[in-house]
Inverse folding.
């Protein structure tokens, strides 16, 4: 038991587990990615792709261990393994892009909702701008009317040559009426401005909630950040990451299968040599 649990065997066991985990996950994503591409025959495609994935790993091991014995077929088998790696990579690419597309569709719905809210906010903003301009004009008019009331005087010279100043009551009443009307209009407009400001604030909070407090925003948060710092659209960023994963996924799985074959073959050869030496030594001792 101690010989089995030594450092070399422990590393081989980890190598086996990691190889099967990587190859198995690559096969899983590839099979279901291809089934999404050919959704009309999903079950049949899963069976076919699963058989091809399993055969690819067996062929890679066979070519590594029996290259000199494979004859002319080794070239076709190598070509077949290469094509299967391409098919697997396409399946993985399809799986990952399909997963992103579902998120992108949800994001599109959120963006549409934000667009509708922004459109409504824009209409409110136009009304707010209009009422602010009207309020400024009313303030100018009120100041002018108040100035007119303060200057509502008439001057005349009496018989003795004295200047007599008096006010016109009718004109004052007219100015007071205009002033009251202007003040009432300003108060009405001030209330409308307050209501519009509150509405715009609520819409802004609604937009902020749509953009931050949902699952889609959490999912695309890193992608949005990468898009901002690179100046590229999110779909381009996703395509870059997907291609990086595809380029390393299945080739690494095949490489680990070959490396595992080399490692186990080396350990078997060392064990065989050790057995031969011990066996020879026992014969010598018996002599």
């Amino acid at each position: 038991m101690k010989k089995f649990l030594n450092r070399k065997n422990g590393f081989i066991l980890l190598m086996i587990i990691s190889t099967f985990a990587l190859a198995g996950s690559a096969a899983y994503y590839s099979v279901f990615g291809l089934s999404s591409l050919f959704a009309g025959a999903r079950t049949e495609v899963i069976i076919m792709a699963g058989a091809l994935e399993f055969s690819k790993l067996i062929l890679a091991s066979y070519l590594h261990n029996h290259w000199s014995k494979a004859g002319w077929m080794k070239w076709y088998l190598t070509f077949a393994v290469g094509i299967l790696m391409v098919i697997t990579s396409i399946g993985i690419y399809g799986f990952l892009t399909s997963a992103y597309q579902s998120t992108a569709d949800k994001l599109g719905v959120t963006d549409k909702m934000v667009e509708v809210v922004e459109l409504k906010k824009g209409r409110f903003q136009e009304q707010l701008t209009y009422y602010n301009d009207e309020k400024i004009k009313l303030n100018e008019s009120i100041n002018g009317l108040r100035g007119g009331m303060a200057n509502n005087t008439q001057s005349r010279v009496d018989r003795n040559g004295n200047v007599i100043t008096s006010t016109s009551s009718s004109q004052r009443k007219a100015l007071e009426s205009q002033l009251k009307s202007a003040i009432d209009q300003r108060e009405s407009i001030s209330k409308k401005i307050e209501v519009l400001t509150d509405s715009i604030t609520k819409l802004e909070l609604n937009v902020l909630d749509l953009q931050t407090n949902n699952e889609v925003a959490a999912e695309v948060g890193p992608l949005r950040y990468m898009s901002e710092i690179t100046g590229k659209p999110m779909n381009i960023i996703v395509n870059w990451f997907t291609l990086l994963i595809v380029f390393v996924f299945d080739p690494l799985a095949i490489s680990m299968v070959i490396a595992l074959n080399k490692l186990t073959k080396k350990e078997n050869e060392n064990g065989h040599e050790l057995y031969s030496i011990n066996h020879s030594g026992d014969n010598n001792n018996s002599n």
